[in-house]
UniProtKB/TrEMBL annotation:
Protein species of origin: Paenibacillus plantarum
Entry keyword set: Membrane, Transmembrane, Transmembrane helix
Transmembrane segments: 15-39, 45-65
The organism's place on the tree of life at top rank: Bacteria
Identification of the protein by name: ABC transporter permease
Length: 144
């Protein structure tokens, strides 16, 4: 596996991010076209409305399928980084740090992690700025 860094750390799952998302968008577009066509022809409106509802349900499921695992991963990352900070400093992470900041801080090596945590909280650094500030990158190859 390639060594992870700021440039290549983002990961996409092609089946989800490209294939399934295009199918969901296509379903919504086609269902709306069908509804407009049915309304213009004043014919078979109920099946067209049902088709739109199914498309909306698919989009909601599509979003939830991604949201729930991310929430679970965020909880795990928060706990892992809080433990790592405690082991290194005997203090818990600053409560001012957002989940996005904590997720970005996970890429910092142990040597720079405590100082970068302080700086991120004090300066309200964005997650992207935190990642750019990491000098010794610590890869995370498990999150998509």
């Amino acid at each position: 596996m390639k060594v992870q860094n700021y440039v290549n750390h983002r990961r996409m799952h092609p089946l989800y991010h490209y294939f399934f998302s295009l199918l969901a968008v296509g379903l919504v577009v086609l269902s709306i076209m069908q509804l407009v066509s049915a309304l213009k022809a004043n014919d078979q409106v109920l099946p067209a409305v049902i088709f739109v509802l199914i498309a909306v349900i698919v989009v909601v499921i599509f979003l939830l399928i991604r949201t729930y695992p991310i929430k679970a991963q965020d909880r795990a990352i928060r706990a892992e980084e809080n433990l790592r900070h405690f082991v290194l400093t005997q203090k818990l992470l600053d409560k001012k740090l957002t989940m996005g900041q904590i997720a970005a801080l996970r890429f910092a090596s142990d040597e720079e992690f405590p100082a970068l945590c302080k700086k991120a909280a004090a300066e309200r650094m964005t997650p992207d700025a935190i990642k750019k500030a990491v000098r010794s990158w610590r890869g995370d190859n498990f999150r998509i």
